[in-house]
Amino acid sequence: MKIVHYLNQFFVGLGGEEAAGHPPEFREGPVGPGIRLNELLGEAGQVVGTIFAGDNYFSMNSSTSAEVVEGLLRALDADLLIAGPAFNAGRYGMACGEVCSVAIDRLGLPALMAMSENNPAVELHRAEIPILRTSDSTGGMGQALEDLAAGASSYLGSDGGWSAASSLLLSRGIRLNEVSPDRGSKRAIDLLLSKIEGHPCLTEWPLPDYDIVQPSALEATNTEPVLALVTEGGLVPSGNPDRLNSGRADRWFRYSVERVASLMSEEFEVIHGGIDTSASNENPNWMVPLDMARKQEPKGGFSLHEYVYSTTGNQGSMPAMRRIGDEIAAELHNAGVHAVIATST
Amino acid sequence: MPLELAYYDISKITFGNKTYLDGSSLVINHDELRAHLLEDDHFEDVTLHVAHPGDSLRVINVVDAVEPRCRLGGGNADFPGFLSTPQTVGKGRTAVLRGAAVVEVAEPVPGESTYWREAFFDMTDSCSGFSPFSDLANLVVDVKPAKYLRDDTRPPLNVFEGTPEAVSLNRAIRAAGLKASVYMASAAAGSEPNEVATFDLPTSPNPDLPGVVYLYQLSIPYIYGEIEPGGGAIGGPAHLPTMVHPNEILDGALVCGWNAIACMRELTYVVQNHPIIHDLYARSGKDLEFLGVVLFTNGDTRESKERLTGHATTLAQLLKPDGAIINYAGGGHPCVDTMMICQKLEQSGIPTTVLSMEMAPNPSDSGFVHFVREADLIISTGNYEESFSFPQVDAVIGGTSLLNAESSPSGPFSYPLSGLLGSTNQFGFTNVTARSH
Amino acid sequence: MNQFDKAGIPAVLVTAIPSLAESLGVNRIVEGAAVTHPTGAPELPPAEEATYRAKLFELAVNCLGISVSGPTIFTLDGPTQ
Questions:
Q1: Any chain B CB within 8 A of the CB of A322?
Q2: How does pLDDT run across B272-309, given as a tens digit for each residue?
Q3: Predicted local confidence at residue A210, as pLDDT
Q4: Do A218 and C64 touch (CB under 8 A)?
């Protein structure tokens, strides 16, 4: 069985950021981690070639990249594409997703990619591309290659399904319909009677993940506590210079409000894509209450942090929102902020 | 006095010169029924079709579906509030043509809320197990609205309702289905039923069996001819929850009131055969005791949701249940009411299960409108965002176009389960469910 | 929100849908004015509007100093639960 492997510029030895714009290229046989992967595959398959590109190539050449990759893949007539492992590297993960999508959608070539569940490419592609679970960092390379070899072998030995490898894969995150032996009303009664009797029962629809976090208390300080304003309402300077997403946000920004008394509609706007923003655009303080904070600052027993923090919650995925929250929290912690007032739509 | 449903099993509907039962075939006097339905001056014309399992046929633009039934003896009390005065039903004997349905279809008129009219099912086996009507002998009543209704170009004032004329037409189309239902079932008078089932609540529940109450979230039905909640729209003024005898629900007190999304539309047929009520009755005295039904709608503000869910919980508690079943009616924020009741019941020590359809289009969207931690046992009645392929069929009844499918209604096309009539029914009428992959 | 608490920084969320925040485990919740403008009430006359917003912000600041044991909703009428 013929396997083609996709890697980024770093893992084929071209370098780091300086080579991040490198266009897709092909080399015969395995390269870098592909050499070990090829050994582990043994009789199951052979890495016949390696395609690689710089991490920034795909975002910089979005209109032509698919054609270029398609051309390289077509010349190979492989049985399977393996991309990664990309661990938690976001741009590398996105590139793996692009290459696998081209293989599956344009050539009907099966593809498998490997990365950490926290890689931003996971949310985008998990429904369509099988994704093998790895650690966050390259320290898990050995395990990732063993798992990739095992997953690829089980696929190549099957009649075209990934079910035998499912313990190595991330869930697709989708809900598909099927016909149950019993109708819903009977199942509802059966489950209720089990619950009344105290038997353990399984819900048919698990609740979304949420954290139970112990509330923090305000730290005692000698000076007035520093308070930061945060929003998921999509507040940006007029014109949205940093291009914050209006939905499915993957980023956050901080904007200086040092010596700013109030958010003026000429200077700030709200770009949240899920709500009618006319009121908040008329008065951005209705989304982020800076003017009230300034008014109450002298007597309120707090001093205001020099930045406001903004992202967009509209259609946000839980992992992305959690990451954004962690990043803002880390910055606030380092900046010595004691408390947060956040607003949400 | 209990309710007796006398079942007459039907597998075929044909047209003839008089209306009668011929074994498991129902023969309908086509011209007489058509003239009967044309008495309503909302209609310019009415066309009658039959649709049987296996036909290469698609029925589109469905308004409602009704099981053919009529009351036997005890005065005229068919579909009270519609075809008779709003007198209480749920006692005595009612004839049921089991295996048959009346399906009303009509192309949308300008001025009506058309968005949720996207409602269809196939008689081919492509819908088998997914739409209840694919397996029935259906009489399809195809209504052509009067010219003044078709020519009305005013936009609807309220997207959920439409103009007053369109609302009036909508009610008339539903009434036509009810009339056809009674007309057909009247043919059973004098024949021997295949089965008689008796329905009654326990007079003295066995204390050794768990008592179960059902909290029924309504999706804007007519109750004894009056629409609930007021205004006939999600967000209409919320009425306090109430209790009715479950037999009233089985015997025609509730009629589908609006064109909700097809997969979760509160179809009259499904309410007449309400699966939770039927299944609770079937097991009452065996492994549970069926204590009763609380009806509730949804609040439109935080305060009214608080008031409404508190009262529904109180009514349920008055029945001293050991457990409760709640359904979510669909439509978005009514989910908050369902979940609040679940939370309040659980917090007062009453275990609950919740039936809910899912709206999960992709991995970023969990499909939940709202949830509480107490909702730890949810019965999924299916994910209505998943698309399915529907084949090409020889004939289409009910109009010339599907609103949201770009291709011809005769197919083939791909469409989310949301358009398939009754598929993710919120009472668990079908065997459809969704699972994580 | 929970990320702030996790990092030891008490946080309050001003939102028009407190029950949703509650179900997500947010510990300090202040009921805001509306989904589209959580900290403003454009329908009120300007003077009343300013008073409303001042009170809302004061409430948010104050509940940062109140010790809670789990998700708690604060409204201008006082905490519920």
A1: no
A2: 999 999 999 999 999 999 999 999 998 877 778 899 99
A3: 66
A4: yes
- CA–CA min distance B373, chain C (Å): 7
3-state class of A175 per DSSP? Answer: strand
Chain B residues in contact with C23 (beta carbon < 8 A): 339, 370-373
Type and span of the H or E element at C54: helix C46-64
**B84 and B204 belong to one structural domain:** no
Residue in A213, A329, A332 closest to C27 by CB: A213
- Do B347 and B313 sit in the same domain of this protein? yes
Is the separation of the CB atoms in A305 and A286 below 8 Å?
A: no
Distance from CA of B67 to the nearest CA of C (A): 40
Domain with B272 in it: 200-419
Q: Note whether B94 and B71 are within 8 A (CB).
A: yes
Q: What is the CATH number of domain A2-168?
A: 3.40.50
* Same domain assignment for residues B184 and B204: no
From the list A247, A271, A269, the residue with the least C-alpha distance to A320 is A247
Q: Helices then strands (H, E): number in chain C? A: 3, 4
Smallest Cα–Cα separation from A86: which of A51, A53, A115, A113?
A115
Is residue C3 less than 8 Å (CB to CB) from chain A?
yes
- Dist. CA B101–CA B294, nearest whole Å: 27
Both B209 and B183 in a single domain?
A: no
| Cross-chain Cβ contact A213/C25 below 8 Å | yes
d(CA B101, CA B66) in angstroms, rounded, equals 6
Is C80 an 8 Å CB contact of chain B?
Answer: no
CA distance B339 to chain A (A): 12
- B12 shares contact with chain C (CB less than 8 Å): no
Q: Do both B156 and B216 map to the same domain?
A: no
Please report the residues numbered 38 through 57 in chain A whose beta carbons come closer than 8 angstroms to any beta carbon of chain B.
none
How many domains are there within chain B?
2
Neighbouring subunits of C (3+ Cβ pairs under 8 A): A, B
- Pairing status of strand B62-66 against strand B100-105: antiparallel
Chains that contact B by 3+ CB pairs under 8 Å?
A: A, C
> In the block, which residue shows the tokens 């679940």?
B342
Looking at beta carbons, which residues of chain C come within 8 Å of A322? Answer: 3
Angle at B166 (CA atoms; ends B164, B169), nearest 5 degrees: 110
Same domain, yes or no: B182 and B149: yes
CB contact (8 A) between residue A177 and residue B432: yes
Instruction: Inform me whether the C-beta atom of residue B325 falls under 8 Å from chain C C-beta atoms.
Output: no
Helix (H) or strand (E) holding B315: helix B302-318
State the nearest Cα–Cα gap between A225 and chain B, in angstroms. Answer: 34
Q: Tell me the nearest-neighbour CA distance from B35 into chain C, angstroms.
A: 53
Nearest CA in chain C to A210: C24
Spell out which residues of chain B touch residue C20, defining contact as CB-CB under 8 Å: 370
Whether residue B225 is contained in a domain is answered as yes
Q: Give the 3-state secondary structure of residue A148.
A: helix
Q: Is residue B430 part of a domain?
A: no
What is the reported pLDDT for C81?
Answer: 44
- Ordered per-residue pLDDT tens for chain A, 345 residues: 999 999 999 999 988 888 888 999 999 999 999 999 999 999 999 999 999 999 888 878 877 888 889 999 998 889 999 999 999 998 899 999 999 999 999 999 999 999 999 888 998 899 899 999 999 999 999 999 999 999 999 999 888 888 888 899 998 888 999 999 999 999 999 999 999 999 999 999 998 876 667 888 887 777 889 999 999 999 999 988 888 888 778 889 999 999 899 999 999 999 887 777 888 888 999 999 999 999 998 888 899 999 999 998 876 667 778 888 989 999 999 999 999 999 987
DSSP assignment of B370-390 equals ---TT---EEEEEETT-EEEE
Q: Among B159, B188, B217, give the residue marking a domain's end.
A: B188
Chain C residues whose beta carbon lies within 8 Å of the beta carbon of residue B339: 23
